[in-house]
Structures are given as structure tokens and as C-alpha cells.
Amino acid sequence: MAIAPDARENDAEALTEPPAPAVEPAPPAAEQPVAEPPAAVDPATSEQTNRAAAAAAVAAVVSADPNLVSTTVALPTDALEFLRSQSTKNGTSTGDELRRSIGTQKFLQDKLAEGATLQLRDAKGNLFDVKI
Q1: Is 111:103 a contact under the CB 8 Å cutoff?
Q2: Which residues pair with 120 in a beta bridge?
Q3: Domain residue spans in the chain?
Q4: Span 53-81, pLDDT tens digits
Q5: What ranges make up the beta strands (E) of 14-70?
Q6: Across 42-102, where does the E strand assignment appear?
Q7: How far, in Å, CA of 73 to CA of 75, rounded?
Q8: Which helix H or strand E contains 5, and what residues bound it?
Q9: Are 56 and 63 in contact (CB under 8 A)?
Q10: Global confidence as pTM
Q11: Of all residues in the chain, what percent are helix, strand and coil, respectively (each to 5)?
């Protein structure tokens, strides 16, 4: 079977790939935009941002549980550091740790009011009465 000359030309054109689109080279480094360095963090602004984020988090928790009421507490630095370390250790919030501490105190006070006594045993086995 013979192939017509113009059919071969059409086949050859069909087999050739279209020309690749022209790619524009990247501009030299001097012409590329330079990212601005991050602005210096103002500690006062950062503290305000942290407080705003904390307030938003508290609002979310309080709105999720109708039994919770938001309040502000002034604590000594060492007490706040303790709450923060406990919350990090336990994977909880400082509010959770504060509620836990108050709950423990309430439990102990209630039991003492019922006539119970509280004792601690030291490493040597000695018992000590604890007065709260």
C-alpha cells in the first residue's frame, strides 16, 4: 500500500511537539524584592497581646461552661510560677490548676469541719499532724 506524500507530511506534523513556551529568566538578585526584617517586638505590646489572647481563651472556657464565672486574681510571683509549672507538667491551664488547688483546699476544710484529722508521714515514717 502506498502512502500519499502529503499524508506523510501531515503525520510528521502530528508527531512533532509544539514549541515550548518561552520562559522568562528570573530577575537578577539585585532586582528581586527584599523581605522586610520583622519589626522589633515591644515588650509592652507583646504583654498586651498575651493578655488579650488569655482573656479570649478565658471567655471561650467560661462561655462553654455556665458554672464558671470569670474573675481576676492577684498572686505572688512564686505562686504564679508554681501554677505555671504545674500546668506545664500536667498539660493543663493555670486556671485548671487554680481550680484544682481551691478544690483540694475546700475538700480538706470540709473534712476537718467534719472532725477528720490530717497527717503526713515523713521519709523516716514519723507522723505529723497538719493544721490548716
Answers
A1: no
A2: 128
A3: 77-132
A4: 766 666 666 567 788 888 889 999 999 99
A5: none
A6: none
A7: 6
A8: helix 5-15
A9: no
A10: 0.51
A11: 55, 5, 40
